[in-house]
Design goal:
The chain is mostly helical and about 550 residues long. The chain has one domain: Amino acid/polyamine transporter I. The protein is built from 22 helices and 4 strands. The radius of gyration is 22 Å and the shape is globular.
Length: about 550
């Protein structure tokens, strides 16, 4: 059935979102999100897990992310609405699925800012005034800088600062982010050149315990838990800001694809530079326990060791700008996702309130509070990487499902960007998303399951207590595959080589086959039971047409 929409009181929002972002603003919003703390820490962590074979891990991660980005490019051009990744599944499957993927999207966006703030504090530990902010503690991932009481206070203040900047108009925010992104792209390129050219040690590729000490499992584990996929997250920011784009149908596909390609190239070169520039004294006999694993500022530490003090100084400055810029844009995104969830009726209508600059300020406050809470159970950078990775790819999995439905139900819909071979690429993207969840492992995925259950409590509470006058139909028939999908993936991970069992039911390679077959079954089942063409059009028209009223026509 179509969404039943009760008229909302005129006071629910003030001026609304404003369309002020051009192509460069969208491109740099996505690129700026991709180049954050991941480039500062990902190369070290991936090397520790996979050895020099981390280069292969980055190639696999880059291909996976590009496959996931392509459906977003088509959908963002079709439906340029704020918080797009939270809303595409809603249009295709109705309330129950839309609410679920909307929650996945918000969890992902709200938890990125705190990890970027932690990265800023980690690098700041180099300075004497910040020594009391961190203490080194032994964790399952090895020695890790951990927030102290003083560090927690600083982290909260930094979150407050990033949130405060977001109260500016989106045009001013995009200008600030674009300026920061030029720096964020330039510094990694400078670092790659200086380290790889002037400190090239090819013997490192076969040093310690070899090129691939943990074999295929290590290579695949590094993709999800070594910070590789986490580092490449962010292409979807152009979709999240689509409701504020000047020319979304033209610019969003280009921004999504362009930012992904830029990010993959830079990160692959970053990993290579880190590997070949490591002094032999820092490697030791194994990649897992080398002295380099205790570095709190990996690239700055290497620059200091090889005599590039000036480069180390630049990197310490960049450790504020790169993570700070990413935290800035993800706080922006989380408020736009909550705005979109409210428009669809999933969270209280108060999240649609905007200030005079057109900024959804209630969502900003919520993102600030949740970000601060995250510092308590996740006091280290490494501790939250896997959770964000799983939440992100689970969120991304909704796009290829929605694209498959739209290609089937709306074949003649206007598509500024049309994904080639979508009948193959869409199910492939869904399979890739689930493989990344598999490689993250049970120790992380069960925590994501808890976060999903908390989300359902919030969504049910919103409906029971009538906190939003929009009452979307749950469309249970179109959502019948969802519980099977969530529980089934959990079981596969638990029973796989990435689970806790000493003798897994699905050993390595067979777990990949099981995930691919299960994903294909869920994909075609979901597309088959999705909403009808009429129901999709009604669902879309309740929001998209209203938000497109101010979109200029593409020349």
């Amino acid at each position: 059935m179509a969404t039943l929409k009760t008229p909302v009181p005129p006071t629910r929002a003030r001026p609304g979102l404003k369309r002020e972002i051009g192509f460069i603003g969208l491109l740099w919003a996505s690129t700026g999100s991709i180049i954050g703390s991941g480039w500062l820490f990902g190369a070290k962590d991936a090397l520790q897990i996979a050895g020099p074979a981390a280069m292969i891990s980055w190639v696999i991660g880059g291909v996976c992310i590009l496959i996931l980005a392509l459906p977003h490019a088509e959908l963002g051009g079709m439906y340029p609405v704020s918080g797009g990744t939270a809303r595409f599944p809603h249009y295709a499957f109705g309330g129950a699925v839309g609410a679920s993927f909307g929650w996945f999207s918000w969890v992902q966006a709200a938890t990125v800012a705190p990890i970027e703030v932690q990265a800023m504090i980690n690098y700041a530990g180099h300075y004497s005034f910040a020594k009391s902010w961190l203490v080194i503690k032994q964790t399952a991932a090895g020695p890790q800088p951990t927030l102290t009481g003083n560090g927690l206070t600083v982290a909260i203040l930094l979150m407050a600062f990033v949130t405060a900047i977001n109260f500016l108009s989106i045009k001013k925010l995009a200008t600030v982010n674009s300026a920061a992104t030029w720096w964020k792209v330039g510094v990694p390129l400078l670092t790659i050149f200086m380290l790889a050219v002037f400190n090239f040690h090819p013997g490192n590729i076969t040093a310690a315990n070899g090129f691939d000490p943990d074999g295929v499992k290590g290579i695949l584990s590094a993709v999800s838990t070594g910070g590789i996929v986490f580092a490449l997250l962010g292409f979807e920011q152009a979709d999240q800001l689509a409701g504020e784009s000047k020319n979304p149908k033209r610019d969003i596909p280009r921004a999504v694809i362009g930012s992904t390609i830029i990010g993959v190239i830079i990160y692959l070169l970053v990993q290579f530079a880190f590997l070949v520039a490591l002094p032999a004294s820092q490697i030791g006999t194994t990649w897992t326990n080398g002295l380099y694993t205790a570095m709190t500022g990996p690239f700055a530490d290497i620059a200091t060791l090889v005599g590039f003090g000036w480069l180390a100084s630049i990197l310490y400055i960049d450790a504020l700008i790169s993570p700070g810029g990413t935290a800035l844009i993800y706080v922006t995104a989380s408020s736009r996702v909550s705005y979109g969830l409210s428009r669809n009726g999933y969270v209280p209508v108060v999240f649609e309130k905007t200030n005079k600059a057109g900024v959804p300020w209630v969502g900003l406050i919520a993102a600030f509070v949740i970000g601060c809470v995250c510092f308590l159970p996740f006091p280290t950078w490494q501790s939250i990487v896997g959770l964000i990775t799983s939440a992100s790819v689970l969120m991304y999995a909704g796009a290829p499902l929605a694209l498959g439905v739209f290609r089937s139900r709306l074949p003649n819909e206007d598509r500024p960007y049309r994904l080639p071979a979508a009948t193959v690429m869409s199910p492939l993207a869904f399979i890739v998303a689930n493989l990344l969840i598999l490689w993250t492992g049970w120790n992380t995925d069960w925590k994501l399951g808890i976060a999903i259950l908390i989300g359902y409590v919030i969504l049910v509470g919103n409906r029971v207590f009538g906190l939003n006058p929009t009452k979307p139909q749950m469309d249970w028939k179109a959502a019948q595959w969802l519980p099977v999908y969530l529980v089934g993936m959990g079981l596969i991970v638990y029973l796989s080589d990435f689970g806790p069992l000493t003798h897994p039911w699905f050993p390595l390679y067979w777990d990949i086959v099981a995930t691919a077959v299960f994903s294909a079954i869920i994909y075609f089942w979901a597309v088959h039971v999705a909403l009808t063409t009429e129901e999709i059009n009604n669902m879309v028209n309740t929001v998209v047409v209203e938000e497109e009223d101010t979109v200029p026509h593409t020349p």
